C-alpha cells in the first residue's frame, strides 16, 4: 500500500519547476558501447561530472567496455560500468575486468547485479557473491551500487512475492554497514510514483537505508517502452503505459516521464528525509532524446561539485 495518496494530497501531487530541477540535479544515465559509438560528443549532451553507467550486455567484449569507459572518463564523466555476475566466468575473470577498468580507464566505481541471463555462465549467480570476493575493496573501488526492484522481481522471487529480494537487500545493507563501501540502490525503471514511494517506506521500515537512485525511462515511443517493460519484468506500473495505449489521442505521441518525475519531486520536497536521492535515466528512446529532455526540464544546470552520492 502506498504511504501517500496523491489524489487526496494536492500539495504533494505536482512539483514546481524548481522542485523538478532540484530533483534532477546529479542525475545519471546509462549507455552501451554500441550506442556510445553513435554519439559524436557527449560533452554537447551531458553536464560535466554526470555519472554514466555502462551496461554490459552478454556478448559485449570487455575491450569495448573498457574503451567506452576510457572515453567517458577522458571527457570528464564519472564512469560506472556494470558487473553482471552471471556472465562472469570466475574470480580470475572478475579480477581481470577490475584491473582493466582501473588501469586503462581510471574507474573506481561499479554497478554489481545478477545480469540479464537466466542461468550463470560461470561461478557467480548474484551480486552478493561478487561483493564477497573482496576484489573491489582490494582494488580501491570506492563506490559500489547494487540493484533495486520497487515492483519486485520474478527472476528473484518467481512466486511474485518479495522474500528473496528483501533478504538480499538486508544482506547488502549489512555489508554496507560493516565496510567502507559507499553503496546505493540503482533501481529498475517504473512508470508510476505510488509503488516507488510505498517501496521506499517499506525499506525504511525494514531498516534498509541505502540511498535510492530511482530508475526512470526516458522519452521514447510508446511501443518501444511497452516492449522493454515486458522484457525487463516491470510490474504494476506497466498499466500506466497500457492505459495510455488505449487513448487514441496519445497513442502516437512519444512518452515522456514528466508525470512520474513531477510526483516524485513533489514527494521529495515534502519529505526531504526520503532515501530517494537521485534519478537514473534509462534512455530507451535514445541518449540524445533523453539528454535534450533533461536539459529542457532543468537538468542542464550541471552536477554539484561534490556529486558522489
Could you write a compact summary of the structure shown?
By secondary structure, this protein is α/β, with parallel strands linked by helices. The protein is built from 13 helices and 8 strands.
Secondary structure: helix percent: 40-55%
What kind of sheet is the major sheet? 8 strands, parallel, barrel
Strand content: 15-25%
CATH architecture: Alpha-Beta Barrel
Average pLDDT metric: 86
Radius of gyration: 19 Å
InterPro entries: FAD-linked_oxidoreductase-like
Protein name: Methylenetetrahydrofolate reductase (NADPH)
GO molecular function: oxidoreductase activity
Keywords: Oxidoreductase
Notes on the structure:
- This protein has helices at residues 10-13, 17-24, 33-36, 62-74, 91-105, 127-132, 135-138, 163-178, 193-205, 222-231, 238-245, 258-270, 287-296, and strands at 28-31, 51-54, 78-84, 109-113, 143-148, 182-190, 212-217, 276-282.
- Helices cover 40% and strands 16% of the residues.
- The longest helix has 16 residues, at 163-178.
- Strands 1-2-3-4-5-6-7-8 form an 8-stranded parallel β-barrel, surrounded by 4 helices.
- Helix 4 (62-74) runs parallel beside helix 5 (91-105) and helix 10 (222-231) packs antiparallel against helix 11.
- The chain has 309 residues and is an alpha/beta fold.
- Keywords: Oxidoreductase.
- GO terms for molecular function: oxidoreductase activity.
What is the topology?
Layout: H1 10-13, H2 17-24, E1 28-31, H3 33-36, E2 51-54, H4 62-74, E3 78-84, H5 91-105, E4 109-113, H6 127-132, H7 135-138, E5 143-148, H8 163-178, E6 182-190, H9 193-205, E7 212-217, H10 222-231, H11 238-245, H12 258-270, E8 276-282, H13 287-296
Parallel strand pairs: 1-2, 1-8, 2-3, 3-4, 4-5, 5-6, 6-7, 7-8
Helix pairs in contact: 2-12, 4-5, 10-11
